[in-house]
Amino acid sequence: MHTTLAFPDLLRLLDDRSTAFRTAVAAAPRLDVQVPTCPEWTLADLAHHIGEGRRRWATIVQAGPADAPPPPVPASLPKDREAISEWLAESTRQLLDALTEAGPDQGCWTWWTASQSPATTGAVARHQLQQLLVHTYDAQLTVGAPHALPAQIAQDGVAEFLTTCCATSSPWPHTPATLDFRTTDAPAWRLTLSPTGAQATTPPPSLIHTSQPPGTAPNPDAGFSLAKKKNHTPNTLLTPHCHPTRSHH
Fold it and tell me: Domain of 87?
């Protein structure tokens, strides 16, 4: 279906988004400010989440193929701004070093074994980039300086989410259906729900519906539309259309 970013590009963009995240943290007037898109977290909490998560995935990648992740290593979290910035940079370095040494095709533990995404370090790098993309935007929004999501990463994020988080071999227990997703400036995707699970594919061009222009009312026959919201600057307008699928018994 969708052509994913090349492994060197994933590593480069991971470093880029990590730098952007640290820049946002450094610009904050204080670190105990609430994150609007993660209201239970302060900016310091978000920074700790980013640092701990990248270090955790570095150890998972280093462990190689496994049926379970290695046990977490307890660590003290930095408190002041300068220490957090240095710790975040080191967290990124550990993840990038682990991914670089492993290469894109090494197997490792992942939580998405039932999905279409492979249990490889390349898939880990792809998912980690989406984590940093979203949380960098969270941090930028917190300090009042949100930037538009880089289009290349945002578009790949739709495909990555569908194949990693939505696709599954678990049976769909309801009426079989097909969801078509179309954006204003990117490819289209299809998610098929059936007794054999959920599978993401690329729909035939002739079957792709026209998406709603930004700012217009959604088609009442469509599943839903995502329009721009105040303080949000998405690069794409995503309009899924739901079609019941005739089941053959």
Answer: 7-165
In tens, the pLDDT along 85-101 reads 999 999 999 999 999 99
pLDDT tens-digit readout, 221-242: 433 333 222 333 333 334 343 3
* DSSP state letters, 80-139: SHHHHHHHHHHHHHHHHHHHHHH-TT-B---S-TTSSS-SBHHHHHHHHHHHHHHHHHHH
**Cα(65)–Cα(156) distance, integer angstroms:** 25
Is residue 118 in a domain? Answer: yes
Backbone phi, then psi, for 179, in 5-degree steps?
-110, 120
Q: Rounding to the nearest 10 degrees, give the CA dihedral for residues 137, 139, 143, 146.
A: -10
Which residue blocks in the chain are alpha helix, DSSP H? 7-27, 43-63, 81-102, 121-142, 151-161
Output 59-62 pairs: Cβ under 8 A, ≥24 positions apart: 59/98, 60/108, 60/109, 60/124, 61/95, 61/98, 61/99, 61/102, 61/106, 61/108, 61/121, 61/124, 62/98, 62/101, 62/102
Answer for the pair 181, 162: CB distance below 8 angstroms, yes or no.
Answer: yes
DSSP letter at 207 equals: G
Residue 97 falls inside a structural domain = yes
Kindly state whether residues 53 and 110 are assigned to the same domain. Answer: yes
Report the domain count for the chain.
Answer: 2
Amino acid at 38: C
Q: For residue 198, what are its two tokens?
A: 């959920």
pLDDT in tens, 11-20: 999 999 999 9
Q: What tens digit of pLDDT does each residue of 19-60 get?
A: 999 999 999 999 999 999 999 999 999 999 999 999 999 999
